[in-house]
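Private note to self, pasted from the team thread so I don't lose it. Backbone tokens:
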């Protein structure tokens, strides 16, 4: 699962349409759509924070499992 898939699943779990998520998060419906369909490149950490807060989850919950399990030495 990619970030967009995760955002969409969490949004649907809360029975929200994209416009409602826009109202809750301050992220435009256009950007939410781009994230969900995988066409948004380099989504900022600020946008992910806003979405996580609006979706009542931790930012890390929006990341794919592969990114969560990245070894710390990969960043050194």
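Design output:
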């Amino acid at each position: 699962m990619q970030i967009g898939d995760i955002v969409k699943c969490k949004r649907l779990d809360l029975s929200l349409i994209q416009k409602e998520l826009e109202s809750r998060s301050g992220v435009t419906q256009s950007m939410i759509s781009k994230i969900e369909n995988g066409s948004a490149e380099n989504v900022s950490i600020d946008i992910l924070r806003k979405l996580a807060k609006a979706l009542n989850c931790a930012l890390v919950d929006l990341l794919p499992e592969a990114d969560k399990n990245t070894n710390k030495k990969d960043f050194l």
